[in-house]
Amino acid sequence: GPGATIGGMCATRCSGSLAVRYGTMRDNVINLQAVLPDGDVVKTGSRARKSAAGYDLTRLIIGSEGTLGVITEVTLRLQKLPSHSVVAMCNFQTVKDAADVAIATMHSGIQVSRVELLDEVQIRAINMANGKSLPEVPTLMFEFIGTEAYALEQTLLVQKIAAEHHGSDFVFVEEPNAKEELWKIRKEALWAGFAMKPDHEAMITDVCVPLSRLAECISVSKQLLDASPLTCLVIAHAGDGNFHTIILFDPTQEEERREAERLNHFMVHTALSMEGTCTGEHGVGTGKMKYLEKELGMESLRTMKRIKAALDPNNIMNPGKLIPPHVCI
Amino acid sequence: GPGATIGGMCATRCSGSLAVRYGTMRDNVINLQAVLPDGDVVKTGSRARKSAAGYDLTRLIIGSEGTLGVITEVTLRLQKLPSHSVVAMCNFQTVKDAADVAIATMHSGIQVSRVELLDEVQIRAINMANGKSLPEVPTLMFEFIGTEAYALEQTLLVQKIAAEHHGSDFVFVEEPNAKEELWKIRKEALWAGFAMKPDHEAMITDVCVPLSRLAECISVSKQLLDASPLTCLVIAHAGDGNFHTIILFDPTQEEERREAERLNHFMVHTALSMEGTCTGEHGVGTGKMKYLEKELGMESLRTMKRIKAALDPNNIMNPGKLIPPHVCI
Q1: A81 phi/psi in degrees, rounded to 5
Q2: What is the CATH number of the domain that holds B103?
């Protein structure tokens, strides 16, 4: 499946869980030290939280997946832990309703800290793996942060939005152990998926679309997934318009791999037709190279290759990754 | 004085006024269309709010000050207007107290939308220009946003922090006209400064330091500014650790220009010694080129020049700007 290098992964990871309020992890990197192909050690910034001092080499190297150099030091912008937080959960009849609530919440201006969507297959996996008995329906999980009064106020506002979209069983918790217990559902989702089919591999998709198109994109994808013989679990960082499908397939069965690829292709093309991206956070690696021309155009890829050639003329840094081989300078 | 190109300015401007809550303007740019030196028209992203699809050309071009291409289209991430806001103002005996309150507010985890520091000279300029009678002392201005209850809750928390640092005359307003009237003070600050010395020019500094060093940086700078024969006004985007000094000088007097440059140099070097940057938002242009090696190192500048040479081999895009002439590939 699509896979980025460790370098790329490090720098783009964690974007899901804290994405909405604090931005992605890359937004919180203010300086890097990196070793370039010629042995130069570069420092890309200062410790100031904003700067206009020259080209933004920090962001150029983040997400370059090891093709421009090796990151040896990272300076992060720290965030104060919120004084209070609330974790909430709500059930829906359809993924479209759930996605619509995520969109409406973001559009309402509520500063939600996390909003995660899990489809009914994902919930079934969690029930099976962890001996739970959650209703096996599309589910939203939220985190609200701030002062105690504000976190509660936001919770009640979202409860109202959920009710307007056929949401049911809205629950929220404030006690630390209860919050941890609830978030565990989300955190163990991937492993619960694997537990469903122990000998299977997972192809994990990573499309991201403009928030206003998320409900449509998930709905269209879900129709296809439900009709497939493969087991597919949807888990979305809904506040970002980013969603993952965990497509489980038997690696010894060539036709199952082909089916997984067909589903992945379909979702990527659906996302691109909605002006989205083939990868919201996992990166390009080799698996997503084939989609970049459609997403960004040949001029953009040529520009990337010119930068790669200028900084790594001997192509010694993670060769063959990120830039499709047919791109000419 | 230091001046970036229009391209660079556009992309880095507005970072002050909405910096804290929503990030700088550059953080809200999700896609660019740009014409490169060879005539290629590149699209740097999709309309998804996050992406890991290849090198971040969006951020590379933002802040490149027209040296890599001409931006012809910008896609912004929109933000919902807050349902409620409060504008507050508070006086202090010293700029250090004022800066300490800005720092303590940010460190407290309060999601302040704006926090601006004006020194007593800046307030005097505003009184003179606009016929006001504000106390001529270091002053902080805040904006808090959210729900009505939350904006008020934050206001009261900051009022408490201010009181702990000798703050006085804490006032806040919620009525739209009153808020506009109060923000006008900040918005017209630069013009009020010019009005003080109509035939003078202004050299505007733009250092930015780690937030924890802001009070020290402003205090040290202020001692120097107060001892100078020139009129100097301090205005800081304090939540970012970014502060501007408007140094007024008579352009017909060479020694005044030299004095202005001396003050600017001192502040830049003070900021750099605190791991800050010579420019938080205004850019490099030609005036700040001389500081970049100290701030970022020659390896970093060489990398920038390699990128410039790869994308603009004939050096036709804003030549002579941003990268110091002595940098060799």
Answers
A1: -65, 135
A2: 3.30.70.3450
Q: How many other C-beta atoms can be found within 10 angstroms of the C-beta atom of residue A86? A: 23
B16 by Cβ neighbours in 10 Å (0-12 / 13-18 / 19+) ranks as buried
- Judge if A158 and A73 occupy the same domain: no
Per-position pLDDT tens, chain A of length 329: 233 222 333 333 333 333 455 677 888 999 999 999 999 999 999 999 999 999 999 999 999 999 999 999 999 988 888 889 999 999 999 999 999 999 999 999 888 899 999 999 999 999 999 999 999 999 999 999 999 999 999 999 999 999 999 999 999 999 999 999 999 999 999 999 999 999 999 999 999 999 999 999 999 999 999 999 999 999 999 999 999 999 999 999 999 999 999 999 999 999 999 999 999 999 999 999 999 999 999 999 999 999 999 999 999 999 999 999 999 99
Q: How far is A249 from chain B (nearest CA, A)?
A: 25
Two structure tokens written together for B232? 């100097």
Q: Considering only the C-alpha atoms of chain A, give the largest distance between any 2 of them, rounded to a whole number of Å.
A: 59
- The Cα–Cα gap between B123 and B126 comes to 5
- Distance of residue B119 Cα from the nearest chain A Cα, in angstroms: 22
Does residue A35 lie within any of the structural domains?
A: yes
Structural domain of residue B15, as residue ranges? 6-79+297-311
Tell which B residues from 163 to 192 touch A, by Cβ distance under 8 Å.
none
CATH number at residue B54: 3.30.465.10
Count chain A–chain B contacts defined by CB atoms under 8 A.
Answer: 264
Is residue A125 within 8 Å of A193, Cβ to Cβ? yes
Distance in angstroms (rounded) separating the CA atoms of residues A231 and A213: 25
* The two three-digit tokens of residue A154, written as one number: 């936001």
Determine, yes or no, domain membership for A226: no
Which residues partner with B91 through β-bridges?
B139, B168
In order, the DSSP letters of A71-137 are: EEEEEE---PPPSEEEEEEEE-SSHHHHHHHHHHHHHTT---SEEEEE-HHHHHHHHHHHT----SS
Nearest-angstrom CA–CA distance, B122 and B190: 9
Q: Looking at the 3D structure of chain A, how many domains does it have?
A: 2
Q: In terms of domains, do A137 and A68 share one?
A: no
Does A238 reach chain B within 8 Å, measured CB to CB?
no
**Do the domain assignments include residue B194?**
no
